[in-house]
Design goal:
Strands 2-1-4-3-5 form a 5-stranded parallel beta sheet. The protein has a single domain, classed as SPOUT methyltransferase, trefoil knot domain (Alpha/beta knot). The longest helix is centred in the last third of the chain and has 19 residues. The chain has 157 residues and is of the alpha/beta class. The two termini are 28 Å apart.
Length: 157
């Protein structure tokens, strides 16, 4: 199984980039992992929030194959602890999925079409985080899940 983590826009803070990269490199020890950065939209001043969401949704859906299992990182998604998240990953691997895609929405969330396409919706917290910070939090949780699945001490160290 491969994991793709789709995100809107680049991270501008070098410290955040370094932390992201630390966990991305650690993840590659366990699984084929890649990130995809969807470019920031241009000429959005005269666009409504709904129009921006729609355009971002179109960008995201163009990156998704029919066979992909799409998990949205969404504030209204299911909350779970780290061991439960690890079990979700194990379930996906046991199903023989070719590619598991996690996606972070833009500042206004996901378009209705993206919600309809999603196989799962996962909330990392009821709190709101910046799009840059959530990448680090998710990368760390993904790494933690794999250490749990491999019975490594990181989870309780």
């Amino acid at each position: 199984m491969k994991i793709l983590f789709l995100q809107h826009g680049k991270t501008s803070d070098a410290h955040v980039q370094a932390l992201e990269q630390l966990y991305y490199n650690r993840l590659r020890h366990y699984i084929s992992f890649e990130t995809g950065v969807l470019p920031d939209l241009k000429n959005t001043r005269s666009s409504s929030e709904k129009q921006i969401m729609q355009r971002e949704g179109d960008q995201l859906l163009q990156q998704i194959d029919n066979s992909d299992w799409l998990v949205l990182l969404d504030e209204k998604g299911k909350e779970m602890d780290s061991p439960a998240f690890a079990q979700l990953l194990q379930k996906c691997m046991n199903q023989g999925l070719r590619r598991l895609v996690f996606a972070v929405g833009g500042p206004y969330g996901f378009a209705p079409e993206v919600h309809q396409r999603a196989n799962e919706k996962l909330s990392l917290s009821r709190m709101t985080f910046s799009h840059q910070i959530i990448r680090c939090i998710f990368a760390e949780q993904l790494y933690r899940a794999f250490t749990i699945l491999h019975n490594e001490p990181y989870h309780h160290a």
